[in-house]
Amino acid sequence: MESSAFTALTEQIAEIAAHVRAVSGESKGESPDRLLTTREAAHLLNVSCRTLQRMRSEQRIAYVVLRGKCRYRQSEIDRLLADCTVVEDAATPTELKRNHTLRTGGGKPRGRRT
To answer: Which residues are in the Helix-turn-helix domain (predicted)?
Structure first.
């Protein structure tokens, strides 16, 4: 095998390996689907444990039940934070509407439950 072909092949293998590491989460310190306790998840979201329980009841956050305890995937916390992030440089009407909805509380009516 020629040295140029060998070099090109090893570069391609290195690129594939880097892609596999990035997808599998090896390059990060922790896996994106690490399971968090209620206290850890509440701390990351800067809410109380009771608020997190309310979010579960309202089906605003997905969770896992293991041996009677609720656990939250790191990827779910990341998704929730991304969904609730106001875009500062909103350019499209959809982004502007989303920002307005986030800033005004989601537009869901609040009141007594039936």
So the answer is: 35-84
